[in-house]
Amino acid sequence: MKKGLILKCVKESLITGKVDYMKTFLPSLIIFFSICMVILSGCGLFYEFEPEEDLAEQDISIGEESAQDLYMVSEVIDGDTIILSNGDRIRFLGINTPEKGMYFYMESKDVLKIMIYGKNITLEKDISDCDLYGRKLRYVFLKNTFINLEMVKRGYANTYTYPPDVKYGKEILMAERYARENNLGLWELSEFKDICVEVFYDAPGNDNENKNGEYVVIENTGSSILNTLDWTIKDSGTNIYVFGSGEFYPGAKITLFSGKGADGEDVLYWNSRRPVWNNDFDTLYMRDADGLLMCIYNY
Questions:
Q1: CATH T-level topology, domain 5-24+189-298
Q2: 157-193: pLDDT as tens digits
Q3: For labeling, which of 73, 163, 205, 228 is most exposed (least CB within 10 Å)?
Q4: Sequence-ordered list of residues with C-beta below 8 angstroms from that of 108, at least 6 positions apart, any chain
Q5: Could you tell me the residue ranges of all domains in the chain?
Q6: Sequence-ordered alpha helix ranges (H) in 11-153
């Protein structure tokens, strides 16, 4: 038997509508203040980050606008979107949580509901006012608790900071560091650790016309044959690929192309309608069938 991926059934590809506006707004430069994240490899989990201050020492003040007005939360849509009693939809700035049908969706939604449903909150605006869907982009506070940061710190959300809305980018990234170091929520680790990934994100020419010019290479660096059933690969937004059942042999590599094509022994196609990976920066999350984190790749 060839050492590679022997597909036993047709893989499932899940493409979840339009990407959140904050992802489609492609900045020319990442501004994370004085923070630098360097990912040297997609093998296992590498996270190099040395903050200047401890998270506990951060003094996060509420802006004048938010301190003056209280808003009642009448509905929690998911872990990063709520509806106020006045009908306004609020999209939390600086974070992203699982969409409906994704791993940890209900956990993220439920914990946010416990924290703020039916309560009076204050809001703080950064630079942008609304996204393409008419949702107001805001930082959310419950008294002295910074809810955006708290969701990340507890492991129910990941950072999603894009210029020009970067006011609390440093603090939120530090909260993510805390959650990852303590394997909280979304950062709980899988038993499958011998997986390496590399993302080739910048297709030659126009990405929209050459979707297969961007791809992900996945390698089994361990000594065991793994079954890929219901593994997932997700970007920092809402694009997600679900693997079908297949035997992944030690030393074998799988190439996952973003565009259309016929799956083969060691080649898979996302069949996405659009390019998946941002050319400037993005994050790949790879999870096992239980939703536990196998690998993360930042660029």
A1: Immunoglobulin-like (2.60.40)
A2: 999 988 999 999 999 999 999 999 999 999 999 999 8
A3: 205
A4: 78, 79, 80, 97, 98, 151, 156, 157, 185
A5: 5-24+189-298, 55-187
A6: 21-24, 64-68, 105-116, 147-153
